[in-house]
Design brief:
The structure holds two protein chains of two kinds. Chain A is of the alpha+beta class. Chain A contains three helices and seven strands. Chain A has a five-stranded antiparallel β-sheet, sandwiched between helices. Chain B is of the alpha/beta class. The chains are: A alpha+beta, B alpha/beta. Chains A and B meet through strand 4, helix 2 and helix 3 of A and loops of B.
């Protein structure tokens, strides 16, 4: 396993469309392991897409700290979106930036694992947000493109809701 | 994607790191971090309180952390040191922050900003500190006033020497109070304070009449953003402490006077003089720092004052150029660079930066400015000397030495120029009658300050 360097906003590669994965080999396994190691470094990330370490392939890894643990998605497709939620997002490729983004409350996603096996997953809450965030990377979209401006009252309301939880 | 960040604490951390580790200025660093950030009003005031609070209490905090750190605070990585200090402030001094929240939020922060593994140490130390709670503070020995009131020991020692232990302790205690922001309406534009109160209310800022200085308004709630208001941009007021306002009143310049302000930046007192002159006459505003001198131009422009002309000039030197600078002035103001010990509650950085040695070196600067500037006062003209410190050597002793060396100058009483409410303090009454007066922070709740009014005999 090895740490990879994270590409930051401004690098044109982040704006390119990633290509599907065709070979499910040991090289892919190493890439997935390196992505996870890079994401876990200093607990800085809960999700990472391959393009963020300069590899234009439709791959991402997420671990939002829930019962699912680490999840790997290869050639994913989000085929159902439901509801809406706002969350203050940040990105390893946009250091120092945060902003509220609207995402679906619940999604269904289909993807392949590292062996090429297809699986189906229903996700909600933070996991849904994180999957959508990483999914966007595969098509060259960053969260900063989608940030919504909120009023002070709206932000205070969101914070109050979170405190209740 | 990154986990949700505690933006407020992250911001406070970056500010504190700059101030405590890189000699940054709290007010400038805060301004830079908060401008354009997405923090809410509430979060902004929390960040401000956390930064000013931690810097203010840092010597107390370091003393209380020490027993839990085997190798001492100095041996730690700077990021860990900063996390521990801001965590300790939240545990011991913050109002409305629950202790467990303070600890867990600081541990989360440490996980993000410190070298791997440091968060467990931060966790252990802050937990021990919070289990002691209020008792931690009562463990400070009574005679250690430097630790109790969070001062460098040499500064606490000076205050004890100058004022005696009992008075010094009251002064140190007063410096832990959070001061109100006060504003001075632009007399040239605002004829009635009520109008400005209404104007500020439209900007969402509450202002009330100050009980001591009738021209001034108090802004409750430690609002740092007052200079973002439209009333400020329209030049309707200046942000100025009550003590600093006294310079204008004591000087009481008349329309048409010729005035020299030797150390004018950022221009608050310069502008006050121009306003009192109803923008008629002339003010030469000098400063040794040309970057800060630009602030004087901006202040004058914002306030619509056209009689102020700025010039980059260091009054500690007497150069040949003095010829063209030496028309005789009706009034010369020497608001000299000083140790700032009257502002410990307003500018907590001074606690970190001021030393006995620096104070000593300032004496020479002050003497040079006074010596060079007194030459420019015309016969019968007035010289005002002021500082924002309570060090007698920079203040009354400086003036006494000056008067001995310059028999052509004398002190002028100014009790008739002061707000009446100040004169109920017998010490201020008698000092103002002598023409030199020190404001102490424990008495009127105003900034520590010194002002002397001299006249050149005609």
């Amino acid at each position: 396993m090895a740490l990879r360097e994270i590409v930051v906003d401004g690098d044109p590669i982040l704006r390119k469309i990633s290509r599907p994965v065709e070979k499910f080999d040991s090289k892919l396994a190493t890439l997935l392991d390196d992505m996870a190691e890079t994401m876990y470094l200093d607990n800085r990330g809960i999700g990472i897409a391959a393009v963020q370490i300069g590899i234009l392939r439709r791959i991402f890894v997420v671990d939002v700290g829930d019962e699912h643990g680490k999840l790997e998605f290869i050639n994913p497709e989000i085929y159902e979106r439901e509801g809406a939620q706002l969350y203050l997002e940040g990105c390893l490729s946009c250091p120092g930036k945060n902003g509220y983004v609207e995402r679906p409350e619940r999604i269904r996603v289909r993807a392949q694992d590292r062996n090429g096996e297809w699986f189906d997953l229903e996700a909600e809450g933070l996991l849904a947000i994180c999957i959508c965030h990483e999914y966007d990377h595969l098509d060259g979209t960053l969260f900063i493109d989608k940030v919504v401006e909120l009023t002070e009252e709206q932000i205070a309301e969101l914070e109050a809701e979170e405190e209740e939880e | 994607m990154t986990p949700k960040q505690d933006l407020a604490r992250n911001t406070a951390y970056r500010c504190l790191f700059e101030v405590l580790e890189n000699q940054g200025y709290s007010n400038l660093v805060l301004k830079q971090e908060l401008s354009g950030s997405s923090l809410s009003e509430k979060e902004r005031s929390f960040v401000t309180a956390m930064v000013y609070g931690t810097v203010t209490r840092v010597y107390t905090i370091d003393f209380l952390l020490a027993p839990y750190l085997k190798k001492g605070l100095e041996s730690l990585d700077a990021s860990v040191r900063t996390c521990l200090r801001m965590g300790a402030w939240q545990v011991l001094f913050a109002y409305g922050v629950k202790e467990y929240a303070a600890v867990s939020a600081t541990v989360d922060l440490a996980r993000n900003v410190c070298p791997k593994g440091a968060e467990s140490m931060v966790n252990a130390v802050l937990r021990k500190l919070s289990s002691e709670g209020e008792d931690a503070l009562s463990k400070i020995p009574a005679k250690k006033t430097d630790v109790r009131y969070s001062l460098k020991s040499e500064i606490a020692g000076c205050l004890n020497k100058w004022y005696g232990k009992e008075k010094a302790e009251r002064i140190m205690e007063a410096f832990l109070e959070i001061p109100d922001v006060t504003v001075r309406p632009n007399a040239f534009r605002v004829k009635n304070n009520e109008d400005l109160i209404v104007e500020l209310k439209n900007d969402g800022i509450e202002a009330i009449q100050d009980p001591v200085v009738s021209e001034a308004l108090d802004i409750p709630g430690n609002r740092m953003d007052i200079s973002d208001s439209s009333a400020y941009r329209k030049g309707l007021f200046s942000v100025q402490s009550l003590s600093a306002m006294l310079v204008g009143y004591v000087a009481s310049p008349e329309k048409g006077w010729s005035v020299l302000d030797t150390c004018s930046a950022p221009g608050g007192k310069t502008a006050h003089l121009a306003e009192l002159m109803d923008n008629e006459g002339h003010i030469d505003a000098l400063d040794a720092n040309d970057i800060r001198l630009k602030m004087v131009d901006e202040t004058a422009e914002r306030l619509g004052l056209s009689i102020i002309s700025t010039m980059h000039y260091d009054c500690t030197y007497l150069k040949d150029e003095k010829e063209k600078l030496l028309p005789e002035y009706d009034l010369v103001l020497c608001d000299v660079p000083c140790s700032g010990l009257g502002l410990l509650h307003r500018k907590p950085d001074i606690r970190l930066s001021m030393t006995y040695e620096k104070m000593q070196s300032l004496l020479q600067v002050q003497e040079s400015i006074l010596e060079n500037s007194c030459l420019r006062v015309k016969n019968g003209g007035c010289l005002i000397y002021s500082t924002c410190t309570i060090n007698p050597n920079e203040n009354e002793n400086r003036i006494d030495a000056f008067l001995t060396a310059h028999p052509d100058f004398e002190c002028v009483p100014f009790d008739d120029k002061l707000p009446k409410n100040l004169l109920s303090n017998p010490r201020l009454l008698s000092q103002s009658k002598e023409g030199k007066m020190t404001i102490l922070p424990d008495e009127e709740g105003m900034d520590g300050f010194f002002i002397a009014k001299l006249r050149r005999r005609s």
